[in-house]
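User: Here's a chain of 475 residues. Predict its fold as tokens.
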Amino acid sequence: MIYEYLYALILLGLAGFITLAAGIKTDSKRILGGFTFIVLIAAFFILLFQEKNYSILSLNISSFDTYWALIFLVSIMVVIIPSMNDIKKRFDVYYALLLFIALSMVIAAFTYNLIVLFVSFEGVSIGTYVLTAYNKTKRNLEASLKYFMISTIGTSFNIMGIAFFYLSTRTFNLNAAAAGIGFGGGVDFNRSLLLALVFITIGFGFKIAIFPMQQWAIDTYDGAPNSVSAFLSTGGKLVAYMILLKFLFLGFIPDYNYVFFFFAILAILTMTYGNLAALMESNLKRILGYSSIAQAGYMILVFALIGYSYYPAVLVSKEVFVRFAIASAMFYAIAYIFMKAGPFIAMSLVKSDKVMIDDIVGLSKKSRWTALFLAIMLLSLAGVPLTGGFIAKYFLFFSLIIGNLWWLAVIAIINSAISIFYYFRIIIYSYRKEGDNDFNMAPGIKYSVIIMGLITLGLGVSFALYTYLAGIAII
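Assistant: Prediction complete.
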């Protein structure tokens, strides 16, 4: 049926209310967590096998949109089991919130109306404010407050950006606007549209943690429960990234010089700041937070590539070039979920709220497999061969090279080389034998780290996946 996507939405919404109702009778983390995981799996397969390539109202049900919906669900699945260790009580509310957040994320994946995108994104944000403060410790509450205050500023910029976009195009629908603006349209790139671009970039840039809007992310990731930090740094960030990708591709003229230079400069500053700051940090969660900022810098290189696609220096056709760039973003997103969520979840191995690098000494002695797969995910973040992160960066840098952007590729590669130092520092500490640290080897944490490490390795040989993504990378 043509409305199959609604089945997934209805399932997620009903399951959220059922989880809340079940909390009246039981607060069993196993029952509620297992139910949530099964519901997400069911929604995943409904979306995977639904009919595609049709539009209805402001929705566009395509393979591209379905892919984002699927990886959003995956970003929640990976934290369900580890959160059984991090969350102390009221599991019914916690898992219901995850289901409602999943519902908002799926809506965001399929809609092209800026008002619906804004509302669905705020649905994700409001849920994550609560999750960040969930255990009600001083660190949790402080992290949530900082997150909420900064997000409020970002929301204000988004509202202004949407308003200026409407003034320029007389529509909130990106698909309708694309006929007059993007890729051969006839609407001039006026000042209102330029302001819309700046405001929306700043608004969603806060959530992506683009420099100089990044400091909230470090404090929030450090203070939130580990499983929540894993989700905020992956799924929460990728929703904002996807929305900005849609807006940039459909909502403005790509051959406007300022757009390319704007995002190229932002990408350089973001990746460089994240990597240099991580070198000087000893708090493990803050190191991972700075790493997340650096990864955002690599990912927004795709935005610069979209702005560059009409330059005559591009070595292939514009359509092929844009397909390569967007496919690179899509592959990076799935690899990023596992190689970033895994290390954050691994922080739960340490029996301390504030995890310092010394606390991980002796991990290999306690569990060599856990230490090995944590190392694999860290090496993947650095872009070392035979990992998903290497393939993601390879295709991203390849897109830069075919655009004759050698200088930008060199800067990105140098930043990747810098990151190796602090990732290796963590690995070296985990393999040191001295020390008498006591680790939490709960199966839910240990095996989650191992499984995500295995998937990261599997993505390291998934060239066929990139080929598939290049075929569906048309918004």
